[in-house]
Amino acid sequence: MKKLFTNLLLLAFGLFVSLILGEFLARGFLRYQDSVIRSKNRDNILTQVPKKELYAPANPGNFANRANAIVNWWGHRVRTDSLGCRTGIAAPDSAKAILFIGDSMIFGLGLPDSSTIPSLLQEELNRSIPQWPVRVINAGVIGYDFQRYLYRLQRLAPIIKPDLILVGLCYNDLLPNEDPYGDIAESLVPLGDDSTGSEIFIPRKQPRPSELSIIMGAIRSSALYTLWSQASVGSRSLRQNTTSPEASKMASLAQAPRLLDDFLRAAGEIKIPVAFIYFPVYQFLGEESDLIYVRLLRDRGYPLLDLADAADLRRESYFYRENRGHLLPDIHFNLQGSRVVAEGVARWLIQNNLWGSN
Fold first, then answer.
1. Domain spans of the chain, in order of start
2. How far apart are CA 229 and CA 234, in angstroms?
3. Which residues pair with 294 in a beta bridge?
4. Which of 51, 150, 69 is nearest to 113 (CA)?
5. May I ask the CATH class of domain 45-196+211-351?
6. What is the mean pLDDT for each group of 10 consecutive residues in the chain (358 residues)?
7. Residues 6+ apart with CB under 8 A from 76
8. How far apart are CA 338 and CA 349, in angstroms?
9. Which tens digits make up the pLDDT trace of 181-200?
């Protein structure tokens, strides 16, 4: 009995020492990793920005970019036009129009107005087909999901009357749309109200987690990427555990066919051709996407470009992001990645006669 008790004490001591050693190694590894990343990627690091500067409530029960706004984010001046679309490169009045709808991928997190994917796409199309001048309108809104894309389409298409509509898709289109006012302050006016309220943003202090917990969180996030992108896995998880936090995030899987059909029906009613581009997170580069929207579009025969197969996209095509004092991989394209995407989309549009043909 005494020997067993001694062995248990030694085991507990060994576990304690292992945890301390693991914490120490994790701290050292993250500090080394951060120093290397910062020295090599000074222009590829995203930081948090005060979104309240740009957002405004929009009826009915929605939010959008403020019109004619100018904010300074990531060292760049970010501007919007009278419709709340992010401004880009100037185009002649006679230019045809492409309306590019999406979330933060299209908006261009961390990039100046002239270097977002829509701006670079406009530049590439005008270079490739100079006799067919085009203006690509950046209708991206940070935090939008597929349900909000329909709102954006119905709001902008009748005014702009584009010749083509492009929709950017990403894995997080399956997640509930971001509520900027819920994130910024708990007691702002209802989202459908015309006033933004006057509350002051006071960030809530969060206890600083250990470096080991940050690593575990990153591993867990990678696993969630897989769950959200694989509809069949998500459906099984939803049936098995309907009370888990991930279950509520994946609940929109069941709504995806209806949301897509509503969008396609609305685009059909205004008689404007629509094409879709899927933006992969870096973990799935080289793999064919199994995102439910991608599968549905393939089944319905709509034009779809899956950029997961783009040979020139690699880990270095994405930003890093500050996360609780450390740098972790982000899902947004940096300038190099945005150029690769714009070139690939332009080439695909031309080769498939979606642009530049009568």
1. 1-40, 45-196+211-351
2. 8
3. none
4. 69
5. alpha beta
6. 72 78 69 55 71 74 84 90 94 93 94 96 96 96 87 92 95 67 36 30 40 56 46 36 44 79 92 95 84 92 92 88 73 94 96 87
7. 111, 112, 113
8. 16
9. 444 333 333 333 333 332 22
